[in-house]
Amino acid sequence: MQIGIVGLPNVGKSTLFNSLTNASAVVADYPFTTIEPNVGIVAVPDDRLKKLGSIYQPEKLTPTTIKFVDIAGLVKGASKGEGLGNKFLSHIREMDALVQVVGCFREGSNPKDEIEIIKTELFLADLEVVNKKISSVSPRAKCGIKEAKEELEILYRIKKDIEMGQMSQLEVADIILLSSIPVIYIANVKDTHYPLPDTSYQFIPINAKLEGELLELSDEEKKELGVQSELAQLILASYKLLDLITFYTTVGTEIRAWNIKKGTSAQKAAGKIHTDFEKNFIRAEVFNFSELEKHGTDKTLHDKGLVRIEGRDYTVQDGDILRIKI
Prior knowledge:
The chain is of the alpha/beta class. 40% of the residues lie in helices and 21% in strands. The strands form 2 sheets. A 6-stranded mixed beta sheet has the order 2-4-1-5-6-7, with helices on both faces. Helix 1 runs parallel beside helix 6 (208-214) and helix 4 (111-142) packs antiparallel against helix 5. The longest helix has 32 residues, at 111-142. The two termini are 27 Å apart.
């Protein structure tokens, strides 16, 4: 799962990325500082994992992670090759979700305009791709090939959605619609308590520059200054946007969190740990963190019949603790 950080040039994308990943992406106040995307692996904040640590006292606690990618700034006309144009769009095509940073720290900045510029470029890029696909499918449709006629009908419906500026819910093989990738909007502000401009978009306010400075402070110093990081809110919102849930394994001296798509079966979840676990899956011993937190020990859960044996088709729930038998 990859989340791309996008926005116009110089709105604070790389500063936010550095704060998220504690990495060292180049930051400067001129366009296209980021040309090749920087990639950072970010641990997902997890209070349940900490509580599991206090219950089991393992030697190692391993959180689940998601990947953030710092993508070059987009300019108006990118769909026609302006700026880094096609390179920017190709990087976006690889993402599962986007975080768009809008600059609200300059006088006269307009978040809605920034969002609309990027939305327009994504729609224009999608329109070009769909038109090319229509051109390739049309000859076969005219020959009366049923599958081609059906595909062409869907393509024209997608085209109509794009031309109306609407996110299309339809899909065609071999086409990734950039405008259909889900987005979180970040308002990069000087003061997270300052009222944001009134738009129809929901923002998470973050002071990217301050977040970078907070990395240099201890928890005690932050408490004394009365400041706290807002990054956990962004990470958890991204996790939710990707429709991910967390399950846990307790093996030997390690407790580990894993992320999977909501609705994943126990056998597929086992494959997240190791391909052999999926291939040789027999059953899973399952109980939920909420039950463990309530009753305190595995023994109590067993005594109360709260530990279940589930087969390969069991749908894993958020907070499940799995002990997989192979």
